[in-house]
């Protein structure tokens, strides 16, 4: 059992950091309790130890701390989260404390929120299809169980509606396995938090969800713990309770801003755009907590959502996220301005594992060929539209005009399905064929003839 040591030697407080002098045997990441002069207790974590000085990061901020009368207790262990299957259906704050007025959680065990890195040899390959009910994801950028697939959004784009839709609709097909959604919200407004909670309550999806909500007015430092707490819950439900867990984390940009704040308070040398040089490493410790384990039925699948500052995909946060994750779903401001929901920009979006999760026995045998054909036809149609905008409609051939018609209908009917439509993969594939029937048969070069005979709707049907 760890020995709890108490000190009254607070030397300095800078922003969210506190420096304690004369400490002995204190270790990195240890949980700290700070008792203020009025008896209020705040929590923190040891960020670094140099000889007899410890730098403590305070989760609840440092306002009102009196240096002389403050007691600091080092617990000898890192921050732990009490976990239980009863967490499903409940709402917690960013530190894992219930805020829905329900009873306290009686824990089955207490887990270190930093988790354990998964041994690569113990990883199982992600290859099972998850149906989100959204055509542009299921068909063109397929999500697979155990994958990490981020959504790149921009300020003002409807990523919260998309997140809620995925949380509501996601299921694993042809499976009796239990499915749960862990939702981590970081630095969001009260209005957004209400939106998520009401949406999940009204649709009944709350019954299989665990929500962790860190609001914009909560301390920034708490934001750093929120995704770790959510992932610890997900790992417990997946690997110990055999559930398939989808983790949705929004907004990763707020998490990275909190990291930058702590880094600046520590007077570290800043990296790109002022973010710490270890941003890549830090993000990977979160994203790599997705996956499946050999011999265990459960899985953790991640959809991190981040809003790109100024819609800049070269910004450090989307840039580094793209290196670590297996693809990205990109939202388009142009489609949003046209009123299309969800405004998923199909062409630059990518799921690197889509081939593993689709095809006969998983979705349908025509999945991959129709996906490739839709991509090709949409790209061709976009080019034809640009040509028409520059040279006028008369510059287009008859086939080009059909491509333009295809592209318009593809955006209006296929992408623009709304935030409440839940399409099965069969409905999506049939809609894809319906749109491809606009084009002359000889243009369908990416689909074999026998498959075209079997699936392409006959004219006049």
Account of the 3D structure:
- The protein is an alpha/beta fold and 461 residues long.
- The protein has three domains: 5-78, Elongation Factor Tu (Ef-tu), domain 3 (Beta Barrel); 81-356, Rossmann fold (3-Layer(aba) Sandwich), CATH 3.40.50; 366-455, no CATH class.
- 32% of the residues lie in helices and 23% in strands.
- It contains twelve helices and 22 strands.
- The chain has helices at residues 135-138, 159-169, 190-202, 220-240, 252-265, 279-287, 316-324, 333-337, 367-391, 398-415, 425-436, 449-455; strands spanning 5-7, 10-14, 17-20, 30-35, 41-50, 53-58, 71-78, 80-83, 91-93, 109-112, 123-124, 129-131, 143-144, 151-153, 171-172, 179-188, 209-215, 244-250, 291-293, 299-307, 327-330, 350-351.
- Strands 9, 11, 14, 16, 17, 18, 19, 20, 21 and 22 form a ten-stranded mixed sheet that branches. A seven-stranded antiparallel sheet has the order 1-7-4-5-6-3-2, with no helix packed on it.
- Helix 2 runs parallel beside helix 3 (190-202) and helix 9 crosses helix 11 (425-436).
- The longest helix is centred in the last third of the chain and has 25 residues, at 367-391.
- The protein is elongated and about 85 Å long.
